[in-house]
């Protein structure tokens, strides 16, 4: 197992799409293995209306028989309709609608609605949504879909569901490398955080079910609540809950009102792969988001990097993590890390842990009830492709997003407030290089 190695971290936030970045710190446990190499970086998945995927470049991941990276991307960009099982309730008709910025798979400025309420003991409970003139209900999930294929299925929040939040669709570029991070690496990072912050920072790992391996769990790392530990699980859940397509891992639609096809609706193509398999293969094959080549060597950017150390933002947004070696079996025995993803040095600027920095949304997904007000540290790679920040996209500037930090991040924010305007400018320029 590869454990925690060289860390370059940023301001203690478990939530947002930015933070203050700390300088590199050598892990006290293990040096960087000499066999580890940098993961390939680039925005290399242009969205094309004709011949989708034909100009895209993968990280070299091996493809199943008769499959190609272009075909995987074409499936990710394929629009669903009533004739293929769209809905009955959904947020989009295509995966790329919610994951597309600087190319297919990138972050989004689209938000979804999550809601629920607390029971008498203060525990979060998923909402009950009445549809079809009171004849039917949708239960068992916190997501509230914005669209439906007929008026009778449209979801509307009742006043009883008084916990409500917006969630931005996350970036998926480079997530194959995130999946390839060993569980113990994330556990080790969490264990070090209280020591690095006088007990202020306490990242939480949660064990979540691997849908493709019944009975098996893994440390969660995908979604705002770390509710998924594998890319295939994430793909299956999103296909059902975002597009409304039932599949072999999520085989039943959330309602039958106006339903047009039989479950499960995701079928195999001529390669023998299902849609969720192509989605997973596409995400696993993407390159990591690159740094801005013009700004990366700028003196002000380097000065801003030093300021991150000065304000002691050295815990949550981990700059450098090394993936597990090739041949490591993960996801409950269903996936073996290939050479393209194994022993790779990545710079996600995230610890992929749950934190409470005062902006939690009150929702519980996958984890225990103590995660109500915790959210995953957003990866800052590709930050410059976003114009709005935080999990709800309600912050329009770096400064506004940083100043929303409280809770575990309170000490670092106090030090940030003491920076001069010029120093803040250097810090922001560093963020602009990510």
Largest sheet: 4 strands, antiparallel
The number of distinct structural domains comes to 2
Structural class: alpha+beta
Pick out the low-confidence regions: 1-29
Query: What best-fitting shape do the alpha-carbon axes yield?
Result: globular
Mean of all residue-level pLDDT scores: 92
User: Percent range for helical residues?
Assistant: 10-25%
Number of helices: 10
Query: What is the succession of H and E elements?
Result: EEEHEHEEEEEEEHHEEHHHEEEEEEHHH
- Cα distance, first to last residue? 29 Å
Could you tell me the number of beta strands?
Answer: 19
Indicate the radius of gyration in whole angstroms: 21 Å
Strand residues, percent: 5-15%
Structural write-up:
It is a single chain. The protein folds into 2 domains: 7-43 and 184-205 and 287-360 and 379-432, no CATH class; 69-170 and 211-285, no CATH class. Helix content is 21%, strand content 13%. The chain contains 10 helices and 19 strands. The chain has helices at residues 69-76, 95-98, 175-179, 183-196, 231-243, 275-285, 299-310, 398-403, 410-417, 421-432; strands at residues 7-10, 21-25, 37-38, 89-90, 111-118, 124-125, 129-131, 136-138, 143-144, 147-148, 163-168, 207-209, 217-219, 321-322, 329-330, 335-336, 344-346, 354-355, 375-376. The strands form 8 sheets. Strands 5, 6, 9 and 11 form a 4-stranded antiparallel beta sheet that branches. The chain has a 3-stranded mixed beta sheet with strand order 3-17-14, with no helix packed on it. Strand 15 and strand 16 (335-336) form a beta hairpin. The longest helix has 14 residues, at 183-196. The two termini are 29 Å apart.
